[in-house]
Amino acid sequence: EIYTLSLHDALPISRAEGQYGERSTRGSTVSWINPTGVHECVDQGQQVAYRVAMKVGMGFFFQAANRDEPDLEVYTRELELAAQAEPLGFDSVWTAEHHWTEYAMSPGPLQFLSYMAGRTERIELGTHILVLPWHKPERLVGEIAELDNLSRGRFILGIGRGLGKHEFDGFGIDMTQTRDRFSETAEAVLQGLEQG
């Protein structure tokens, strides 16, 4: 049998002998790349194979650039589209954090993903990215933990430094401080999530 790996479970799928292309042996493990690019691995001692398939998600930015429609219509349209991700078979929904721009009206990615947690049952929900220099870690830890619980462990945290000068200006943060602020906030957030 071959097992499909995901974050929380493994499901058996069948394998026809010889359909996976050339093999290479290293130690007790036989691994190969099949013609579709899926990596396979068999531990000869346990006779177990693993198949890791590509996951596909949808990203939402709530873009309103060059549009003559109210913000409510942009949000309504994007929310309706996001609600279709799970029924259409997508694996995840993602959103970014942006402020003071029509490029992306997504100043609260955790709010949007909390909404999606209530609208979905299986898909993963991720940030690409939360801009850590803009946040207080004490508050962010609580909001992340809340979303992870509301989604029953489906949240994927993506973090970064950010790059929009007008956004840093809006927060009154000097961009030359972003590396230090990111490092300090990331350390505090990760410690808070791991240790409570």
Tell me roughly what share of residues is in helical segments.
25-40%
Give the CA-CA distance, first to last residue. 40 Å
The fraction of residues in strands falls at 15-25%
Tell me about the largest β-sheet: 6 strands, mixed
- Uncertain spans: 1-40, 43-50
List the quaternary state of the chains.
Answer: single chain
Order of helices and strands: EEEEEEEHEHEEHEEHH
Average pLDDT works out at: 80
Helix count, DSSP H or I runs of 4 or more residues = 5
The SS-based structural class is alpha/beta
Approximate shape = globular
Gyration radius, in Å: 21 Å
Q: Which strand order does the major sheet show? A: 2-1-6-5-4-3
Number of strands: 12
What does this entry look like structurally?
This protein has 196 residues and is of the alpha/beta class. Helices cover 32% and strands 23% of the residues. It has five helices and twelve strands. It has helices at 71-83, 109-119, 137-150, 165-171, 178-195, and strands at 2-5, 10-13, 23-26, 29-33, 39-43, 48-52, 57-60, 92-95, 124-127, 130-131, 155-156, 159-160. The chain has a six-stranded mixed beta sheet with strand order 2-1-6-5-4-3, with no helix packed on it. It has a four-stranded parallel beta sheet with strand order 7-8-9-11, covered by helices on one side. A two-stranded parallel ribbon has the order 10-12. Helix 2 packs parallel to helix 3 (137-150) and helix 3 (137-150) packs across helix 5 (178-195). It is globular. The protein starts with a strand and ends with a helix.
